[in-house]
Amino acid sequence: MSFEPRIVAFLCNWCSYTGADLAGTARLRYPPNVLIVRVMCSGRVNPLLVMSALKKGADAVLICGCHPGDCHYSTGNWQTEKRIPLLRKALESMGMDPRRVRLEWVSASEGARFVELIKEYVAEITQLGPNPLRGAEHARTSAPAL
């Protein structure tokens, strides 16, 4: 049985989600390993939400926002860009590979780029292997209650 990664993708409503939608309307295909969560702005993606997704067994988290300077809320993507290095350091201090969190800018017109990004990230996480917390979460939830 081969490993199939589970990736949670937080996409900003104004650009990235619309880019993903464009990919769908253009019938561009990408791996089904990604669970898309629509957020109003990448700046609203709390680092605790990212950590929670990883703790609950996601193999990686992708955050996509508007290109710098194009944020619907002016500075949301700049806030996100500042948080990601700190989040990666936190992952490293926990013994996790920082590549499990990725930030990308995808505009509403970049449906094809979104598809390529997803394909590339799925391949990268497949090589990286399962999230080390995935088995721990499964073991905890499948243990019989005493």
Briefly characterize the structure.
With 146 residues, the chain is of the alpha/beta class. The protein has a four-stranded parallel β-sheet with strand order 2-1-3-4, sandwiched between helices.
Provide structural commentary.
It is a single chain. This protein has 146 residues and is an alpha/beta fold. It contains 5 helices and 4 strands. The chain has a 4-stranded parallel beta sheet, sandwiched between helices. Strand 3 (60-65), helix 3 (76-93) and strand 4 form a beta-alpha-beta unit. The longest helix has 18 residues, at 76-93. The chain is globular.
Present the secondary structure layout.
Layout: E1 7-12, H1 16-25, E2 34-39, H2 47-55, E3 60-65, H3 76-93, E4 101-105, H4 111-128, H5 132-142
Parallel strand pairs: 1-2, 1-3, 3-4
Helix pairs in contact: 1-4
Give start-end ranges of low-pLDDT stretches.
Answer: 138-146
Annotation, overall tally of beta strands: 4
The rough form would be described as globular
Note the run of SSEs as H and E: EHEHEHEHH
- Described by its quaternary structure, the protein is single chain
Sheet of most strands:
4 strands, parallel
Q: Evaluate the radius of gyration.
A: 16 Å
Helix content: 40-55%
Order of strands, widest sheet: 2-1-3-4
Structure classification: alpha/beta
Q: Which key terms come to mind for this protein?
A:
single chain; 146 residues; alpha/beta; 4-stranded parallel sheet
